[in-house]
Amino acid sequence: MKQLKIFLILTSITLLAACSTLMLEPARFAWPLESVLEVGKDGFVKEDRYALSFNTKALFFEETQDSLSYSGKTIRLIRNNEGYYFITAVDFKNVYVFSIDKNAFSLKTKILISETTGLLNPALNQRNPFIELLSDGKAFKLTSEGIEEGVK
Amino acid sequence: MKRSMINKILLFVILLTTTTLFAQSDYEMVQSFKERYQKIADGIKAAASLEDVDNLSAEIENLKRDFSAKRVFLDQSLYPENFNSSFENLNSSLELRKEDFTSITVLQTEVTALKSEVDLLNRRNTELINQITILESQRRKDAASIEELQRLVSDLRATLLKRDQLIFSIVDSLTPKLAGDISSMTQQDKEQVYSQVERNNLLVSVKRSLRDNSRFLEVTSLKAGDLDKVKQQEQSFVTMWRKVGPKLVDVYANKKDKSAELKEIDNLFTVWANRIDKEAWESINEEFSLNNINLQNFNNGKEFVDVVTQYVSDEIKNYGTKNKTESEKTYSIFTDSVWFKTISNEWMPYLLDNKLLAVEQKDAVEKKLSEWKSIVSPQDLTWLYAVVGLAVVFIIALIFILKKKKTSIDTTSVQS
User: Fold this and answer.
1) Å from A15 to nearest chain B CA?
2) d(CA B138, CA B129)
3) Which residues of chain B neighbour A152 with C-beta distances below 8 Å?
4) Residue B182: is it exposed, middle or buried by C-beta count within 10 angstroms (0-12/13-18/19+)?
5) CB-CB under 8 Å, A33 with B23
6) pLDDT grade, residue A4 (50/70/90)?
7) Partner-chain residue, chosen from A49, A134, A152, that has the shortest CB–CB distance to B25
8) Residue B1 confidence (pLDDT)
9) How confident is the model at residue B378 (pLDDT cuts 50, 70, 90)?
10) CB atoms near residue A38 (< 10 Å)
11) Rounded CA gap, B82 and B68, in Å?
12) B78 chain-A contacts, CB cut-off 8 A
């Protein structure tokens, strides 16, 4: 029995050592300033400074249930220190938090800001460790999990 | 205690309200900086005077002061620039623009001096042209008048040349602005060139110069060498105008009356060029008339050849009917005093070089002159007769000698 215990402990240690991932930390992913990006005719946005581009059609469909609602729109995008991307736009009721997946943005959290009316003139500020959402004179402190502090 | 509590609540509400009111989008703040930056940068490009540049310098300082509290944030956000490099860019643009204006001010001072000199020369030229016109009518009356006329023509020629040089200098002052592709000039650039052209009366000066140059040719009779210099002067003027003229047409595109002025300048160039060609034919005709050979007017190579050959043909035809001595005198004056002395030596190179006359036309005239010569002074054949006579005597003498020799041989053979 004692031998079996020793065997299990050694096996666990070996397996854990084998599974551990190389980590480079701390890392800061925060963008100092939000990017305001126009959605192209094909639904794509392109961010020049960070050499980033992606398709927004699914985002607009998720928000409005209208597959063509992206046309002529502008999105506001910022990345927090953890590396999550926060996206919103005029008339959106939510702020979408994405993480990076293989060739894709993967939705982590959908933060509901207002159930009744869409955001009139949203803006995202970097206020590490939060992302500050401003809209209609109201301010929200957001994390990747949701609203940290309500309307101030 | 209660009052103090109310005050604290009020203070809290005020703080809360102001915090909410002053919550500002970072993006908007950066955009506001960029907009003010761009406005100043555009202002530097559009600045029309040193005063404008100085005002912009103050605006740069204001911008720096207003955003200095956000310096760290702007350093991160103004990618690929940063706070300092943005102001360095503005200040270096401002310095460069300042240098432009310093140069422009120097040029403007020079151009103002040139313009007053042009005005002075304009007046002098008018006086000289008037004096020459008066003297021209007395030209054959006395030697003093001729001498005075020559002096005035020489003075006028010098002042015209000097005035043209001054106009060239004024045009040169515009050249930096007109250099390069005109289509890349903004409306504001065009307005600047327009106001500079107007301020210096450039179009008026060019027109005046072209008219005076034409008028100079009208009131004077020039030698081939002088006319050649005038031709060179005209070519320089044309070259200068070709550089700036089409560009000025574009600058003046929206000014209809001024566009007409530019067309008028083009016409004056044509008038001048035609006047130079005409001057050559008139001066040549005058050479003949000074020697009392009155030819019809001719204004081009064909007319010249026609008139001269017709004159010679008439002289040949009239040779028998006119007094022989008079015909020979006319021939001598025409050929020796005019054609070979002046026309052939002085004018022919000018006419051929400037394609006013073709070589074939020159040959045709000279062939006609040879024909005239053969009539007026036929070749003396005495020497030919003498040679033939001598040859005949020689042959007879030879035959006689040979015959005599043969007789003596025959006698000797009979004896032996």
Assistant:
1) 44
2) 15
3) 16, 19-20, 23
4) middle
5) no
6) low
7) A134
8) 47
9) low
10) 10
11) 12
12) none
- Residue A52: predicted pLDDT: 94
Shortest CB distance from A134 goes to which of B16, B23, B30?
A: B23
pLDDT greater at residue B24 or residue A29? A29
- Residue B205 to residue B403: CA distance in whole angstroms: 98
Give the pLDDT band of residue A91 (cuts 50, 70, 90): very high
Tell me the C-alpha distance between A79 and A128, whole Å.
10
Q: What is the per-residue pLDDT for A75?
A: 97
Contact B76 A33 (CB under 8 A): yes
Q: Are residues B142 and B201 in contact, defined by beta-carbon separation less than 8 angstroms?
A: no
What's the N-to-C CA distance of chain A in angstroms?
62
For A34, which of B20, B26, B76 is closest by C-beta distance?
B26
pLDDT digits (tens, 9 = 90+) for A103-145: 999 999 999 999 999 999 999 999 999 999 999 889 999 999 9
Residue at B205: amino acid letter:
S
Phi–psi pair at B92, nearest 5 degrees: -70, -35
Within 8 A of B28 by CB-CB distance, chain A residues are 123
Measure in Å the smallest separation between the Cα of A31 and chain B Cα atoms.
Answer: 9
Instruction: With a cut of 60, say whether residue A31 has pLDDT above it.
Output: yes
Residue A148 φ then ψ, to 5°: -80, -45
Q: Give the rounded percent of residues in chain B with a pLDDT score beyond 70.
A: 81
* Residue B275 exposed, middle or buried by CB count within 10 Å (0-12, 13-18, 19+): buried
On whether any CB of chain A is under 8 Å from the CB of B79, the answer is: yes
In contact, A61 and A152? CB cutoff 8 Å: no
Nearest CA in chain A to B21: A137
**What is the per-residue pLDDT for A16?**
56
Residues A123, B28: C-beta atoms closer than 8 Å: yes
Residues A91, B9: Cα–Cα separation, whole Å: 35
Query: How far is the C-alpha of A59 from the C-alpha of A105, rounded, in Å?
Result: 10
Contact (CB, 8 A) for A112 and A125: no
- Burial of A55 from C-beta contacts in 10 A (0-12 / 13-18 / 19+): middle
Q: Which of B19, B27, B30 sits opposite A152 (nearest CB)?
A: B19
Interface predicted TM-score of the whole assembly (ipTM), two decimals: 0.80
* Average pLDDT value over all residues in chain A: 89
Query: Do A126 and B24 make contact, defined as CB atoms within 8 angstroms?
Result: no
pLDDT above 90 for B231: no
Determine phi and psi for A87, rounding to 5 degrees: -130, 135
